[in-house]
Amino acid sequence: MRKALITGINGQDGSYLSEFLIGKGYEVHGILRRHSVAENQDARINSLDIKTYYGDLTDEVSLFKILKEVKPTEIYNLGAMSHVGISSQMPAFTIKTNSLSVISLLEFAKEICPECKVYQASSSEMFGNSIDSDGFQRLTTPMNPVSPYGCSKVMAYNLVKYYRQAYNKFYCNGILFNHESPRRGSNFVTNKVVKSIVMIKKKLINKLELGNMDSQRDWGHSQDYVEAMHLIMQYKSPNDWIVSMGETRSIRDFCEYAFSLVNLNYLDYVKHNEKYIRPLELDVLRGDSSKTRKLLNWKPKYTFESMIEEMIEYWMNKI
Predict the structure, then answer these.
(1) What pLDDT does 87 receive?
(2) Quick one: residue 135, left, alpha or beta (phi over 0 = left, psi -120 to 50 = alpha)?
(3) Buried b or exposed e, range 236-273, using 16+ CB within 10 angstroms
(4) Is-catalytic flag, 163?
(5) Which of 53, 228, 260, 282 is the most buried (most CB within 10 A)?
(6) Rounded (10°) CA dihedral 286, 291, 297, 298
(7) Beta pairing partners, 287
(8) Per-residue pLDDT tens for 94-135?
(9) Out of 15, 82, 87, 123, which one is annotated catalytic?
(10) What are phi and psi of 125, to 5 degrees?
């Protein structure tokens, strides 16, 4: 039986990936960080047939013990300090969690389960404001991150490449561009927008405060992107891959469409607040996923519009 270990299993991607792997016949294990509010700890995964362990990527002892017990055939390293904005307030913690922990994970995997495949969740934030002349970012685009989060992901990305080449391991990077869903944390801008829209519609609040409305992102759905993760791990050889929709929309575009779904005009409710402006802004992200689509036969099911529609429907039912 194929056995997967997922770090960050209780996050958006971890929950969708768990469901997908269970459907493929995997035995699924995952690492949970302890939260003080237990109800939030495993809300996305508490109905799934998985085995979880308390641990932390920055705690080498727990990481070693879990790997030794599980001896997985595939590791999906999705755990991270994942909020770009907060990474500017907690740069040292971000580097420790997203970069230094990857050294421990790869070293332990190499010694404990040498045949195990490893997937590292890389990020489009690694590119920063570097973009090719045709408006796309690809594996050859220079990486010039503009946040501690982006810097931490570049280090982890290069560590995975080094271990793959130095020790002939099946270690892969998936550079995933922005991906959302109803399971996205509401402190991230997309779900913050959608949740606030529904609260405005239900007359619970009367405004939505945002920062840079002209930031452009390449948005897809988490459920599509975790399927790409699995395809990456099943390919004939280890490699690095870009997973993206190849379409760019601004925060303004997102707001305009999302507000229109509840028959409201975003201009009447969205207010600018300087506190949501990053120390260094990232202007445009647009990924070239042609290699992923061609070699892995990856085809996303969601569109930008259907993703937002699902998110609106979720919050309309929840609030």
Answers:
(1) 93
(2) left
(3) eebbbbbbbbbebbbbbbbbbbbbebeeeebeebbeee
(4) no
(5) 228
(6) -20
(7) 137
(8) 999 999 999 999 999 999 999 999 999 999 999 999 999 999
(9) 123
(10) -65, -15
Reported as type and span, the H/E element at residue 27 is strand 27-32
Q: Give the Cα separation of 47 and 73 in Å (integer).
A: 24
Catalytic residue (choose from 74, 125, 180, 227): 125
The one catalytic residue in 16, 119, 149, 157 is 149
Q: What is the pLDDT of residues 294-309, one digit of tens each?
A: 999 999 999 999 999 9
139 DSSP 8-state letter? T
At 42 the pLDDT is 76
125 tagged catalytic:
yes
Sheet holding 74-77, edge to edge: 51-54, 27-32, 3-7, 74-77, 117-123, 171-176, 240-243
> pLDDT digits over 221-254, tens only?
999 999 999 999 999 999 999 999 999 999 999 9
Q: How high is the pLDDT of residue 260?
A: 98
Tell the burial category of 314 from Cβ atoms under 10 Å away from its Cβ (0-12, 13-18, 19+).
Answer: middle
Which of 99, 100, 77 is CA-nearest to residue 67? 77
Residue type, 92: A
Average pLDDT over residues 40-54: 85
